[in-house]
Fold this protein.
Amino acid sequence: MHIAIVIPGLDRIAGAERQVMLLAPGLHRRGWKVSVVALSGTGGPSAAELAAQGIGFLSLGMRKGLADPRGWLRFNRWLRRERPDVVHAHLPHAAWLARCSRLAAPVRVLVDTIHTSATGTLGRRLGYRWSDWLPDKVTAVSPAVADSHLHAGMVTADRLAVLPNGVDTDAWLPDPITRAKVRNGLGLDDEFLWLAAGRLEPVKDYPTLLQAMAAVPPPARLIIAGGGPLENHLRNLTRELGLEPRVRFLGFQPDLRPWMQAADGFVLSSLWEGLPMALLEAAACAVPAVATDVPGTGEVILPGQTGFLAVAGGALALQEAMTRLMQTPREERAAMGRRARQLVLDRYSLHAVLDQWEQLYADLLRQNPRPSRF
């Protein structure tokens, strides 16, 4: 069986892209022929990583988003030539491309996945609503994401399923040797080390995190992994708050694992989410977390058991939750981390999530024995 995974691009890696980079090799190892199709970009190191694992990569070279007709033509020609059994699109632009291409090129099964609780602009909502009849199934990464899109009328209940993100729990796990090495490189001894990870964009609300950090008792430190358009603004705010000795910007990190393994706590200050990959990865590394109480975070953080939640947008609430975790006895923090890892093992292991995807594909393929054009 051949599956085509469609994504806007792989040059910039965030949660949805990291999930694709797990699903594609995972399905390939299970005997699927896998092709990853990007709307734009070159794919960068991610494309090379896929190729090294025997996974095809194609960029449609779309320079004007969905308005570029050349990308549409390339994709339709590719579909007719390669005839994948399943087309699985991630994120809105890829979903619309895949949906509309089904009008011209026959496909047996079309699935698209929603990764965030944010329903976007009126145009996005109308786009999903008007094309809802084209996919065989729409999936959401968490119940909260499913509910938000149901209430917005962007998907109907009969076409909707919840399939969570998966984590490679064999790769993301505690490592005392790495922890000691990274902390030594940072010049840390017993200081409490917070890690925040994600693009430096408004949705992550890093200004609120920095304001909270300014009120967190020293000698706690914060490292921020990620790049983005707000970097200069956030660095200036760090100086204004007098946090330069305690906050370090790491820039984009292709491998977060050593930083996660070195941290005492993970912190997420987002205004909205879906099912945050970084939060799952922190839990897999047995790192307790503090996060804003937005859709998806409550799936991973069980207050008092695996971490603490705080109201979104409130620096005081976030600071209080961070301080509470820091003042939790070391033995109890370790127990919280173990419970967090067990939760991921039980619900979000990559093996279990791949089982769910294969079952969904198999069910839909049985219902659609031949390619169909709408």
Observations:
- The two ends are 22 Å apart (CA to CA).
- The mean pLDDT is 93.
- The longest strand covers residues 2-7.
